[in-house]
Write a structure and sequence with these properties.
heterodimer, A: Rossmann fold, Rossmann fold, globular, B: about 90 residues, two-stranded antiparallel sheet, two-stranded antiparallel ribbon
Chain lengths: ~400, ~90
């Protein structure tokens, strides 16, 4: 129990990430603040001003420049991190692909917020879901504790020589970023020992070994570089498992590809990301008290997408609802729905699957909303028939 | 290319001075032609050439590095008005 209570305090998600950044002490942070991630850089800039870190903090004029400066610093050989949300991530778009294509292990905290228009500053996942094909590893976090733990693990995953890809740590705007939760902090020395030193194989400041970054590749080699990148993304799954296991061994909190909650004997299940899983757990507990076999699957690693493990976890349920806090605007459900449903296709006996889109722009998702979805699922499990494949809830 | 699987990650070129191996002369549409009788060897073209494609020997302008000259014509423009020793001509088909 000593480990459980060590460093126990109350922090918001943003403060916890800023504190993790202080403990990691990156070489460079280039950032442009945006709600609801602002406090991360605000707090971190205090650490820089107080001399608590050695980081070169570059204040830039836009998020496009922030990511560009991160890429430049990573090319120079620095350990680099930043934070953003919504329009900020959208403005980084072009550079996200360059960071991943150039294989720079940059770490970003993305505090999930809705994309305009209409303008909105509250939580949904349309920002990071839009970046799901950008070649960044994505970790989703239910709580402040998990956001903090994920952020520290992200450094190890990104810099692993089998991976060398940037990592995006996502958690819910305002719900997780601004609410104070109980959290166990690690010691600075524990964090530094866990992440180790960053030693890039090639870097521009190594003047004894001059190199070129950003050379043109055409029909003769471009596809080989993308193939390397794709294989690295596939390998990132096992590395995330290894790092999550080692983190657990060291600090008592083990992480895997996903969290399952009362799923083992469940007949119906909800698949949901981030903080809304907590709300859903309350609904599950209520229904379990009534003897109903309900459960939850909360993916933690979304990129790479652990399709086999997710299919295996859901293979015995009769009906599953995939709840997306983002719409792919394709007339066919949200991004999580499409990928989970596709993962289930390999099963011989597939559960029935429905798409529900909830909570866009920070609309509350309540226990009663989860209960309604479970009621729909119960009917589908009994009849084997899906009446409404996809719909918006929490309207 | 036989060793595509060993290509350095992220498209990095892990050695220096490789720009020399890149034959930008293939982009050329017009080529510079030097009139050695008019040339005063002021070397303004050598200073202005963006591709370092003006070749000199013993302080004198002796011609162009056609492997790297992109045919931009800056040398012909910068050659002093009273001299005009460089003319841009169509590349021979």
């Amino acid at each position: 129990m000593a480990i459980m209570t060590k460093g126990q305090t109350g922090l918001t998600g943003n403060t916890a990430i800023a504190y993790a950044m202080k403990q990691i002490n990156p070489d460079v942070c280039a950032a442009y603040p945006i709600t609801p991630s602002t406090a991360i850089i605000e707090d971190f800039s205090s650490y820089v001003a107080d001399g608590a870190v050695d980081t070169e903090l570059i204040t830039v004029e836009s998020e496009h420049s922030a990511m560009s400066a991160c890429i430049g610093a990573a090319a120079a050989g620095a350990r680099v991190m930043t934070a953003t949300s919504a329009q900020g991530l959208a403005l980084m778009w072009e550079m996200l692909y360059i960071a991943s294509g150039m294989r720079f292990p940059i770490v970003i905290a993305n505090v999930n917020r809705a994309l305009s228009a209409p303008i909105n500053i509250h939580c949904d996942h349309s920002d990071s879901m839009g970046a799901r094909d950008s070649g960044w590893i994505q970790l989703y976090s239910e709580t402040v504790q998990e956001a903090y733990d994920n952020f520290i693990q992200a450094v190890r995953i990104a810099e692993n020589e089998k991976v060398l890809l940037p990592v995006m740590v996502c958690f819910d705007g305002f719900i997780t970023s601004h609410a104070i939760e109980n959290i166990s902090l690690l010691d600075d020395s524990e964090v530094r020992r866990f992440i180790g030193e960053y030693r890039p194989k090639h870097y521009l400041l190594d003047t004894d070994n001059p190199i070129t970054y950003g050379a043109m590749t055409l029909q003769d080699t471009y596809i080989e570089f993308k193939h390397q990148q794709s294989q690295a993304m596939t390998r990132a799954k096992d590395v995330a498992i290894e790092v999550g296991r080692e983190f657990g061994k060291e600090f008592g909190r083990t992480y895997g590809l996903m969290e399952t909650y009362r799923l083992d004997d469940a007949e119906v299940a909800i698949v949901i990301l981030n903080s809304a899983a907590g709300t859903t757990k309350v609904a599950v507990d209520e229904l379990r008290k009534q003897g109903k076999k309900v459960g939850i699957l909360r993916p933690r690693l979304f990129r790479p997408f652990p399709f086999r493990e997710i299919a295996d976890a859901l293979k015995n349920v009769k009906a599953v609802a995939i709840l997306d806090r983002a719409d792919s605007m394709n007339g066919f459900g949200g991004p999580l729905f499409n990928e989970v449903r596709s993962a289930l296709y390999e099963l011989d006996a597939r559960p029935r699957v429905i798409s529900r889109i909830y909570g866009l722009g920070g609309r509350d998702y309540k226990v009663k909303d989860a209960l309604e979805v479970f009621a729909d699922l119960k009917k589908i499990a009994e009849t084997g028939k899906v009446e409404t494949l996809q719909k918006y809830i929490t309207l | 290319m036989d060793n595509r699987k060993e290509l350095p990650l992220g498209g990095v070129i892990p050695k220096g001075g490789t720009a020399h191996d890149y034959s930008t002369g293939g982009w050329r549409k017009l080529k510079p032609v030097l009139d050695t009788e008019r040339c005063t060897n002021c070397l303004i073209c050598w200073v202005m050439c963006p591709d370092s494609a003006v070749i000199t020997q013993d302080g004198k302008m002796i011609g162009f590095d056609m492997e790297h000259c992109k045919g931009c014509g800056i040398c012909a423009v910068e050659c002093p008005d009273k001299v005009k020793a460089i003319k841009m001509e169509e590349e021979a088909g």
